[in-house]
Amino acid sequence: MNFENIIVTQLENTALITINRPTKLNALNIKTIEELHTAFKVLEPNQFVKAIIITGSGDKAFVAGADILEFANFNIEEGTELARKGQKLLFDFVQNLSKPVIAAVNGFALGGGLELAMAAHFRVASTNAKMGLPEVSLGVIPGYGGTQRLPQLVGKGKAMEMILTANMISAAEAKDWGLVNYVVEQEELLPLCEKLANRMAKNSSVAIAAAIKAINANYANLVNGFGVEIEQFGLSFGTDDFKEGTTAFLEKRKPEFD
Ligand code: COA
After folding, report:
1. Which sequence positions are flagged as catalytic?
2. C or N: which end of the chain has fewer Cβ atoms within 10 Å?
3. How far is the CA of 164 from the centre of ligand 1 (A)?
4. Cβ–Cβ < 8 Å for 50, 17
5. Helix (H, G, I), strand (E, B), or coil: what is residue 85?
6. Residues with Cβ within 6 A of ligand 1?
7. What gap in Å lies between CA 138 and CA 231, rounded to an integer?
8. Relative to the CA of 130, which ligand 1 atom is closest?
């Protein structure tokens, strides 16, 4: 498979997807989301792929968020569509994939990056990883499922704190909070993910697909929450704070909100 922003490698029983925009800290633009959708779609029926690991290129970032430059001038309709399309093509798609997806969080996982890691079936982090949902510091809210999946993983109180403060947490805190399952040195990250993938590969693929479906069903009653998120995310694009927040980021200064 030939892509511009991602690299897909076949390991023993496993496919490795590497998001490859290192100069932008692997920020998720629409093209990258579309490429990821295609890659997952092609890998899912491949009988030689028993599990998929997703990571970021370089040693600094998993994904530093949605691409702020790309959406900074969007209006309410475009913002709503951004969240709706992204959730459908990538985040819900990954969550509902019939093959296990492990996020190998090798550095910053912020905004859409943490949302992508949370859409994966579970997460392993390297010691340098930092995780957060900083959207409200930009005058917007998480739009790729963050307001729904973070409370599912860490509980409502911690999710509220992370989203409302926009603070990042360390890998060790993420492990304490149940956001990641393991924390290892960076050079051990992919080997551990491969080991876990190979362990899963020994099990019945059909049973694994059924288990994923059954576990996800436990959260299906929250489906309306995703709709509320899309609506509120979209509405952020009509606010002065959103203009100020994204402009300040792109101008490399602190935002001044009223
Ligand atoms: N969207 C677009 N570009 C991004 C990005 C994003 N989410 N995150 C980082 N980049 C770009 C930077 O603009 C910079 O590009 P430039 O070299 O052309 O100026 C490059 O990636 C490197 O980032 P930089 O900010 O210089 O690195 P840093 O080490 O000083 O800081 C972060 C790292 C992750 C703390 C900082 O990049 C950051 O805060 N990113 C945005 C995080 C965010 O708010 N994500 C949620 C988006 S909804």
Report:
1. 115, 135
2. C
3. 20
4. no
5. helix
6. 24-25, 27, 64-69, 108, 110-111, 134-135, 138
7. 17
8. 34
Using alpha carbons, list the distances in angstroms from residue 78 to 69, 167, 206: 14, 27, 39
For residue 106 the two structure tokens come to 């090798």
Q: What is the DSSP string of 175-238?
A: HHTTS-SEEE-HHHHHHHHHHHHHHHHTS-HHHHHHHHHHHHHTTGGGHHHHHHHHHHHHHHTT
Among 95, 82, 128, 85, residue whose Cα is nearest residue 234: 82
For the chain, the structural domain boundaries read: 6-201, 205-250
Q: How much is the pTM?
A: 0.94
CATH number 3.90.226.10 given to 6-201: yes
Among 19, 21, 24, 144, say which to mutate for ligand 1: greatest number of ligand atoms within 8 Å of CB. 24
pLDDT the model gives residue 74: 97
Q: How close is the Cα of 213 to the center of ligand 1, in Å?
A: 35
Q: Residues 94-151: pLDDT tens digits?
A: 999 999 999 999 999 999 999 999 999 999 999 999 999 999 999 999 999 999 999 9
CA-CA-CA-CA dihedral for 129, 134, 137, 139, to nearest 10: 150
**Distance, CA of 200 to CA of 140 (rounded, Å):** 38
Distance of alpha carbon 214 from alpha carbon 66, whole angstroms: 30
Phi/psi region, residue 107 (left: phi>0; alpha: psi -120 to 50; beta: rest), is left
Question: Is the Cβ–Cβ distance between 93 and 38 less than 8 Å?
Answer: no
> Of the residues 20, 23, 25, 249, which should be mutated to test ligand 1's pocket, given the most ligand atoms within 8 Å of the CB?
25
